[in-house]
Amino acid sequence: MTFVSTVWIAFHLIHSAVATLPKIGTWEKNYKTYWVGLNGAYTKRASKREEVAFLRAFRNRIEDYLLPPQQFTIYEMRSEFLGLVGLIVDTPASLPAEEEIKAAVYVFSQRWTSFYMPCLFMQKEDEGGLDGHTEAPEPQDSTRKRSSISKFRRDNRGGDGKDSNIEQRDNAPHDLVSLSTPPGVSAKQMQGIFWQWKNPGDGVTVYVMDTGCDSRHPEFKNTKFQDWIFPGPETLEEPRDDSDLPESNDFHGTPVTAKIVGEKTGVAQNATVVVANIIAGNARQGFGHDLYKAHDCLLKIYDHVKKNNPGGTAKCVINISYGWIPLDHLKSIDARWAAAIELHSRYIFTELVNLGCYFVMASGNSGKEVTTDLIFAHAADPKLMGNIVVVGGHDFDLRNVYDYGGIVTISAEARNLIVARGYPMSMTPSYGEDWDSSSTWKINGQNLFALRVIPVILKILDLDPYFTSKCVIQLFQAQM
Questions:
Q1: Residues 172, 427: Cα–Cα separation, whole Å
Q2: Residues 6+ apart with CB under 8 A from 456
Q3: In the predicted model, is pLDDT for residue 242 greater than 50?
Q4: pLDDT (tens digit, 9 = 90+) per residue, 277-290?
Q5: To the nearest 10°, the Cα dihedral for 352, 355, 357, 361?
Q6: Half-sphere exposure of 297 (CA within 13 A, CB side)
Q7: Boundaries of each Peptidase S8/S53 domain copy (predicted)?
Q8: Which of 18, 168, 261, 464 could form a disulfide with 30 if both were Cys (CB 3.0 to 4.6 A apart)?
Q9: Domains of the chain
């Protein structure tokens, strides 16, 4: 896909649902946020002098409309290695700032054409682009024969017929048991046994983009937490009085992280974890918008990967296990806005894939009639799909409960999963032993099954750092 201009901007009012408490550091009860996406391909090569001049001129143009204190109002979405990628602009809700900011963007698109261009003025030269977002691949035929995975197997069986790379876990939760159940074998015959690779996840870093993690949980007593990442300009857990906003009491990030590395519920205990705390523990969205926070989070992940893998290919998996506004919904509001967000997403995706990163994406928990609520699953460039696995789920009777327009390539049981129970950090829970209600509970949702493909990816990374998503799909088809 090419454009008449090689520069672009994702620009639109993206958060008019204003907060009911004052924004930190101001007396404003309500405010609006605007997202300006820049042409990262150019800005990472721009000189510091050019960048400073651009920022100063842009700020001066809209200064009268900025939320006080004005010198701290514009948040820079920046990577140490990729440069300036976006701007987040806050204005008082009482001021009619949208038209003025649009005018400023138009003026600067003429003067600073290498930095950015309003999506309102983008032109399509080739197929794709503004008139339609990324098309999903055709749905897979559920009746097709299994593909051979012989080239991924190692014949390391000893004299007793057991593979030296495999170990047995007893009394495993049923979803893990089903993960290693051979074709034609019933769950009863498995007797609660889960077969897994030895040292699962060893040497690989997993970035978990979710609501954070309660590291006090006994599931994490031996977990290697490397770092925490906090994207965006806002705090996450600030007390609020907007009780009408949707929230969740399952503290999603804790069970998700435990499904990766947990002592009992996890599948890759030896992996190193970096927690990307993108939304609040109760799943409220904080003051900032989750779309630009997600992009800012990926920029911070890029820097983290780059710093921890100097001069080499990274062995890392980025797990995205929460849903956003559906891209189709964004298109119904403003198709050009949605297209610009796609382009912005693809740029960041490409840079991470070039580092050697792989993505595991949950397709969401909406109904079959709804296109996936995970916007990145649509935004991913088809050329990068070898590094991306989109995961769906089905119930115990093999009914596909999370379908999403055919973009799902892997599906497995996603009902009544035993997961680690999360608590707010203000509580001091007394965790019990085994599977009691203080430490675990059962929930539904394929967001958690998405974590179960991670050990497959980690093992193949150990065998071959240049695997594709087809390897993972073939491995799972062999079990179904």
A1: 28
A2: 472, 475, 476
A3: no
A4: 887 655 455 444 66
A5: 10
A6: 27
A7: 201-424
A8: 18
A9: 11-123 (3.30.1360), 163-477 (3.40.50.200)
Q: Which two tokens stand for residue 170?
A: 């007893």
Report which secondary-structure segment, H or E, holds 53: helix 48-62
Q: Read off the DSSP letter of residue 63.
A: G
How many whole angstroms separate alpha carbon 80 and alpha carbon 76? 12
CA 199: distance to chain centroid?
A: 25
More confident residue, 15 or 93: 93
Q: How far is CA 196 from CA 201, 211, 269, 357, in A?
A: 11, 28, 11, 23
Is the pLDDT at 479 greater than 70? The verdict is no
- What gap in Å lies between CA 234 and CA 292, rounded to an integer? 12
- In eight-state DSSP terms, residue 163 is B
Cα-to-chain-centroid distance, residue 453 = 15
Q: Which amino acid is at 480?
A: M
Q: What phi and psi, each to the nearest 5 degrees, are found at residue 201?
A: 85, 0
Give the β-pairing of 388-394 and 272-277: unpaired
10 Å CB burial of residue 215 (0-12, 13-18, 19+) is middle
Question: How many whole angstroms separate alpha carbon 387 and alpha carbon 240?
Answer: 39
**Structure tokens belonging to residue 137:** 């691949």
Residue 197 has pLDDT above 50, yes or no: yes
The residues, any chain, with a CB within 8 Å of residue 203's CB and separated by 6 or more, are 270, 315, 462
Give the Cα separation of 89 and 104 in Å (integer): 12
**Token pair for 470:** 């087809």
3-state secondary structure (DSSP) of residue 310: coil
Angle 68-12-357 (CA atoms, 0-180°, nearest 5)? 100
Summarize pLDDT for 48-100 with one digit per residue, the tens: 888 888 888 888 888 888 888 777 788 899 999 998 888 888 888 777 777 78
Q: CA 15, CA 19: separation in Å to the nearest integer?
A: 10
Mean pLDDT score across all residues of the chain: 67
Tell me the pairing of strands 272-277 and 205-210.
parallel
Angle at 147 between CA 142 and CA 152, to 5 degrees: 135
Measured at the alpha carbon of residue 365, what is the angle toward residues 400 and 474, in degrees to the nearest 5? 50
Helices (H), 180-326: 187-190, 253-261, 290-308
